Records
---
Amino acid sequence: AQKVTQAQTEISVVEKEDVTLDCVYETRDTTYYLFWYKQPPSGELVFLIRRNSFDEQNEISGRYSWNFQKSTSSFNFTITASQVVDSAVYFCALSEAQDSGYALNFGKGTSLLVTP
Amino acid sequence: ETGVTQTPRHLVMGMTNKKSLKCEQHLGHNAMYWYKQSAKKPLELMFVYSLEERVENNSVPSRFSPECPNSSHLFLHLHTLQPEDSALYLCASSQDPGTDTQYFGPGTRLTVL
């Protein structure tokens, strides 16, 4: 069963718009970690953020912000004032202290296209 | 060189060829990983090494053979592949295996004819 669901397959926005990428996860572990990665057309997965299950504080880094809500098992990612360079596939991933072994469970990704 | 590097970046091979993918990490990490990324599928973990010892092998066909001679280098030896093995192969490393952040290389785009 898919442990990480990214329901949005593709999103297209115009530059300077705000955009939110959704991520819903499923786990029985009480200790787990959530990640977001960016994959530009070059192919490399670029690490963006890691949050543990005990820290529900939202995080902001420049134009990026993350909203972690355990009550809804969601870890959503918002890009403010999007830019063309933000165009990429974004992956949400889950790592569990007990159940995952060594695997990062990735969602299927959301392809974001930002047009001028 | 910094981070995680992979060579070659692109590889085209016939089904009877033997080739190897190379990964090198310059981060001082203890764990290294091979992932396969096919179109329309989530990333699939193939192998995990911790301090040069294989700790996970996710039912990968024997035509894929990993090798980890030291904690900085990881190879994936390929032989008699099938066209459905065409994919992006990504290498990653982390401080320790499990829940530590994994840092990825740029990948090798493999095409099997």
Note: Chain A touches chain B through 26 residues (CB under 8 Å).
---
Amino acid sequence: DAGVIQSPRHEVTEMGQEVTLRCKPISGHDYLFWYRQTMMRGLELLIYFNNNVPIDDSGMPEDRFSAKMPNASFSTLKIQPSEPRDSAVYFCASSPHGREPNEQFFGPGTRLTVL
Amino acid sequence: GEDVEQSLFLSVREGDSSVINCTYTDSSSTYLYWYKQEPGAGLQLLTYIFSNMDMKQDQRLTVLLNKKDKHLSLRIADTQTGDSAIYFCAESTGGYNKLIFGAGTRLAVHP
């Protein structure tokens, strides 16, 4: 298996633009997670899905952020409009089931820079 | 509230042992985890320990858990340059699907 795939790997955009990050989880995994990593705040869970349904979005910072999972093999995280403080590395992760131990498989991340 | 704390930086000489410490708050966590992040990559599960255990050993890795003090440590024996990375402690909480990560400890291994 190719692992969790994220695109793009790097994104540079200007303030106010819409940004869409993409994720393909590992086939057969029931759970998908979106995280944000910054120096100041560390690794934060934004939202997670179970069988394509959002379960917990309490980490989504504000209404400018939205996430969708239209099918089991694809998810997007959208920021509209983007702001410089959104600059971070965004990780997608998937896990095969909801039982512990809970191994999450991380993608390589998307480094977002908002100018 | 939920919080996982780690020291941010550790520097060791190649061949020495490294000890990375972590404190957590959720006493109901069933498992506690160590993840490793290499430069430019995502996190990767390194090891985990069941909360009813005090110690787990896996080759060069030893995990110690003091449940009374909510203290977790990761010891790496014979540390190598390839061990240079950021190590994250994590607890499962609010439903075991949700992991709360510490800020990560950056391990630097020098000759």
Note: Chain A has a mean pLDDT of 94.
